């Protein structure tokens, strides 16, 4: 019988008890109604408050950072004019990459909560039917167990792709990732042992109504850990190439973070043939000479819209936009080359301001390009708070909506970093 509390697992698979009632009794919960009442009240208050929903003024499908034409996709990847391309969204491109990996390499496994069902975002849809339950399967609700099992598989030469249903749930597996996966190569000395075939996928970021437990973007926590790679794609074509590289060609465990707001919002033409993208190279999306804007994932769309508006308002203004793609290790050479050219830099990301990826990038720019800087390096980020449902709208960096308010500062100071600061 399907669970009413989860997506596709039976109660016994999910919680280890034949019924939810037995679980509650075993934990001596005094009153289920008394337990749920405060939760229900808070839920009602947060969902009915004024402005509780986020309304992003971005038309993703029209963004210039997506391949709107078939020829654009072909030229971006150096393909011939008769090469086949498909119109895909982000979750479709991920599904295609997973299918290719499973078909190409029999050592590839795919598992996690509800993965056999297709996943809550449908990224693994249809894969169990084609490859069977021995290669694409569900796991119990235990992130520590999922990642621990994946590390063991990778250590034995398999290529496990473990799915954490939401990035917010990865914390029980933090010890496994930091103390086991990241250190495995170092611990093995000269034996050559590693668990580089491991990929941990996780949807991340805000969609405007996720609340405290479905809106976090914890990438910075993993950028402090040597031995891990952290990747976040911006688009379907990037998602496909980066995931192919992560599964089939990386010698290090990869934390592969998927901005869930882009699963269906980002659509473009994607090359049909299989391809890979480098896991250590930033991508210059737009060249410029006056300012370098550095970002990754969903905020790139906001940056692109803000740049378009600024360049329209200030004649002759030229802004460079760079997608990090690989958050750790990140491409310092490309960033330094750009900032040494422009003399100004703004780092933009959705996650928290405090000790975020932007702090490391900004510090590195100060060290490596100090004599060329014409203004302090600025950061545009989410606030350093736990954002409940009613605060989510205010926590998200929204550059475009600041255009009218910040434009006078740009003109007065001739320093574009003022414009990009919330």
TrEMBL record:
The keyword Oxidoreductase applies. Its cofactor is thiamine diphosphate. It comes from the Eukaryota. Keywords: Oxidoreductase. The keyword Plastid does not apply. Residues 88-265 form the Transketolase-like pyrimidine-binding domain. It is an enzyme of class 1 (oxidoreductase). It catalyses: N(6)-[(R)-lipoyl]-L-lysyl-[protein] + 3-methyl-2-oxobutanoate + H(+) = N(6)-[(R)-S(8)-2-methylpropanoyldihydrolipoyl]-L-lysyl-[protein] + CO2. One of its GO terms (molecular function) is branched-chain 2-oxo acid dehydrogenase activity. One of its GO terms (biological process) is generation of precursor metabolites and energy. Its EC number is 1.2.4.4. PANTHER family: 2-OXOISOVALERATE DEHYDROGENASE SUBUNIT BETA, MITOCHONDRIAL (PTHR42980:SF1), 2-OXOISOVALERATE DEHYDROGENASE SUBUNIT BETA-RELATED (PTHR42980). This is 3-methyl-2-oxobutanoate dehydrogenase (2-methylpropanoyl-transferring).
